[in-house]
Amino acid sequence: MAKILIVEDEIPINELIKRNLQSVGHECISVFDGEEALNEISKKNIDLILLDIMLPKIDGYDVFQQTCGVPTIFLTARNGLTDKVQGLKLGADDYIVKPFEMLELLARVEAVLRRTKKVSDSFELDGLHVDFPSRQVYLDGDLIECTPKEFDLLEVMINNRNIALSRDKLLDLVWGYDFIGDSRTVDNHIQKLRSKFRLEDRIKTVYKLGYRLEV
After folding, report:
1. Span 180-199, pLDDT tens digits
2. CA-CA distance, 25 to 6, in Å (whole number)?
């Protein structure tokens, strides 16, 4: 997976981001000011930077201008349009305003890494091979047919592996907030994924919440 530099001076936020990114397989380096960030950038092969704007010593904009083209997502409490435009004009890959949902951050990280070719376009587990660009799934080398929603659900579970996802969150991520249905839709599709892709021991039921893909 990717090597990600987290530049955030609020220690609890930094640690929370780090734990969640590590849970899906990324390697993380945490720093807490702009000077530390530039030091790490100069000596490490960084795939992505999560960069706060309001930093001690050197602010995020100045740090970004010295990142040598490393893909960057700005993290900031600033929500003004001017700040967003400035960040994007400088060439940032994305911009997310605090407070944010961790699943949103993980999705944006995944999108930038895919776009910049810093992560694989496929996923493998226990004989299962998922090719994201072609939306095809193979089990022990054999192509397994699946519906669009089955693939969407599988992709969401993979991108958020080792994280407990509620049924409501899965409905939102896969079917959309305006979907007319209930949690039984999620349960039915989870059962299909378990049986179709031999994931009975990998997709765990989280009591009174939802499901988690354990990797």
Report:
1. 777 789 999 999 999 999 99
2. 15
